[in-house]
Amino acid sequence: MEIAFLDDEAAIDRSYALMARLRPRLSRGDYLAAVSRLMAAHGYRLVGLHDDGLRALAGIRIGEWLHTGRYLEVEDLVTAETDRSRGYGRALLGWIAGYARQQDCRQLRLVSGVQRVDAHRFYQREGMAWEAKYFSMDLA
Questions:
Q1: 61 located within any domain
Q2: Residue 92, SS3 per DSSP
Q3: Which terminus in the chain has less CB density within 10 A, N or C?
């Protein structure tokens, strides 16, 4: 098992099939363009867990808020349905937490859709607390 950043275009392209399970509305072209923009503008990075293929994938970025200070946000986290309950998500989230500590982050944050009840149970098992409600408004 190896966990590493996906920094080159070919690796990011290969990650599309797994990310599409979480973000099915994105075409391959839209995905590649969005990742490129997010990397350039916001420091977004993809990190993947490989075990005879890409098994889990996360999109992360570091930010700072007045009330928490420096934090690492997991914006996208996906494990293929057939690879769940094999420890891949736990290993990837643990690696991300370690990376956040190395980057002097005070908090690890993650936003998850309200419909993802199984994912919420996983996050709570991994020590994450539900501390806020996140509101949104469609503008287009």
A1: yes
A2: helix
A3: C
